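Q: I'm teaching a short session on how sequence maps to structure, and I want students to see two examples side by side rather than one. Could you give me a first protein with its sequence written out and its structure tokens following it? Keep the formatting plain so it prints cleanly on a handout.
A: Of course. Example one:
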Amino acid sequence: NVRVDMLRLRETDNTVLAATHGRGLFTAPYDLDVFYVGQEEFAVAKEDVHIYPNPAYNVLNIELTSDSRNDITVSINDMAGRSVYKQVYKTGEGTFVQLMDISTLKPGLYLLTVGNGKEATTKKLIVN
């Protein structure tokens, strides 16, 4: 086994970089379209949920359009499938925008899921 000291995703050329302790630097190509671990991406209302900025640093905005008052659950999972954030918000009719503090998240690739109990959509989130 080799300890990995740094793992980075380089979006400019879709490369994952891994720096090890004593074994050097390794690179490999990746494809975000097949980078799901333990999550499904739902097509339902995908175009109605927007996250920005993406890549994000300390804060993230979630914007969605709702036809009625709903409780929505926003959850963020790391690429190993571990839950790193989960919060329930109340929405009204129309546009809902929520500012989220993500300063505790380590840099990397995450899956953000927004659901209302009946429908859900998953978006890729990159934290710098």
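Q: Perfect. Now a second example for contrast.
A: Example two:
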Amino acid sequence: MNTDKNRLFDTQARAVFESLQSK
């Protein structure tokens, strides 16, 4: 399992989600 890659994906997904929510 690549924890670092999974964490990076989660960080990007959260950033995108928050960006959409702020609109």
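Q: What should students look for in example two?
A: Point them to this: DSSP finds one helix and no strands in the chain. Also worth mentioning: The chain has a mean pLDDT of 91.
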